[in-house]
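User: Could you check the structure of this?
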Amino acid sequence: MGTGHGHGTSHAGSTHRWRLVAAFVMVAAFFGVELIVGILSGSLALISDAGHMAADVVALGAALVATKIASRPDSTGRRTYGSYRAEIFASGFTVLIMLGVSAYVIVEAIARRGGEGDVAAGPMLIVGGIGLLINVVSIFLLRGGAEDSLNVKGAYYEVVADAAGSVGVIAAGVLVVLTGDSWWDTVVALAIGIFVAVRAVMLGRQVLAVLGQHVPEGMVVDQVVADLTAIDGVADVHDLHAWTLTSGMNVATAHLVLTAAADPQAVLASAQKVLREEHRVEHATLQVESSPTKECLERAW
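Assistant: Sure, the predicted structure tokens are below.
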């Protein structure tokens, strides 16, 4: 017996799509300027930040495509959960881009170690300041949806890292002006690369947890079992599985063994309410039975 299917409900990524559009337009418009100035000024910090901004453009574009795909109804009959997971794959793609950019910057910074090079600090300061302004605006736009959607959170992390990169570019420009030593440009670029890598690993762990169908973040399975068992008419709970389909969409399945006098419909309604209100599970497929079946007792997973 199933409860709580509601496939027509708008998901988090689709709700916050306008935030991704606004951030994408601003970041894409500025990327070319930063790259050209970085090449002309000889600044690795500026080039690395432009590279990261290019990653932002690709990541934001992928996120926009994913939210569009995720919001489409399934016309094939083969995707019973719809295409919501497209957002998670887009987040994974963002992780790969961030790791690639950070690897390039770190390798390039190491290659420049001990080398000489002239860096034009003026353009670094101007472009870094403009980039920081754009990133701060994008942060405020994306922060509103980062807690609801892993897809938006990936874009948010990208922009936060980019803002740190812009701060680094400004700091490098100031240090080059004060000391006359272009080595500071390489140091800051290395720091940006490491920061981006750490952010990518953090997001990557969340993506893998969803793809691996781990228990939703913050959920304790033993507590879910205890809450369901405490429902009037439930004698036992087994075959409980819970996972995250996509951001803001937790699902679960379970078998409920009923007492002799239990009302199955009343138990199902109560179980659905407990899962929804206490454990943020909107979609639950529940089976009621008078005693565990042979298949339940023999199943090892």
